[in-house]
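RETRY 2/3 - previous attempt timed out on the joint model. Re-submitting the same 229-residue input unchanged.
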Amino acid sequence: DTGVSQDPRHKITKRGQNVTFRCDPISEHNRLYWYRQTLGQGPEFLTYFQNEAQLEKSRLLSDRFSAERPKGSFSTLEIQRTEQGDSAMYLCASSLGTTSALAYEQYFGPGTRLTVT
Amino acid sequence: AQRVTQPEKLLSVFKGAPVELKCNYSYSGSPELFWYVQYSRQRLQLLLRHISRESIKGFTADLNKGETSFHLKKPFAQEEDSAMYYCALTHAGGTSYGKLTFGQGTILTVHP
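RETRY 2/3 succeeded.
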């Protein structure tokens, strides 16, 4: 296991198209997080899962965004009808969640850079 | 609402000089504070957390609840410390623990 992986690493799409990103967490981690990072800003929380349950969603996550983690392993983040404002780096992180202290150490993936033209 | 502020976007020091990266936060509950670092062409990684009171790579950070600050310090900067540094917080306990709020980041450059 080489850590959290994300696919694709880069995605260029035209406005109005749908895109889907995948995140594979570290295998024993039951918590998975999605963040979005725009230029010059720190990552912003989008949503997180404990196993397959989506426990919290940010108000940043509009109706066009949906995330799943169907079997409690990998996760997908879909953006429908993309807009230019969706251009950003989308980061995935995972952590153990069995105790609060362990849940704090999040391991980040390399990110998927989305460009909407 | 919780907020993390890093007032310096850029910080330059010379090798061997002390360095302090500032972080202030606002949070009504009991926060846990962290510093994350991103070296060039690498992914974001945890540097240290206040609850462990560790010193990692010579860096330390003290949580000052009175001033709501969590500044990162190192007495003698090294060139390999050049990176982007993010301060972050999460709620201590409850269902939202682990969800991180990040500051805008500070780019540290250590000159030879």
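Chain A touches chain B at residues 3-4, 31, 33, 35, 40-45, 48, 55-56, 91, 93, 95, 97, 100-101, 103-111 (CB under 8 Å). Closing ticket.
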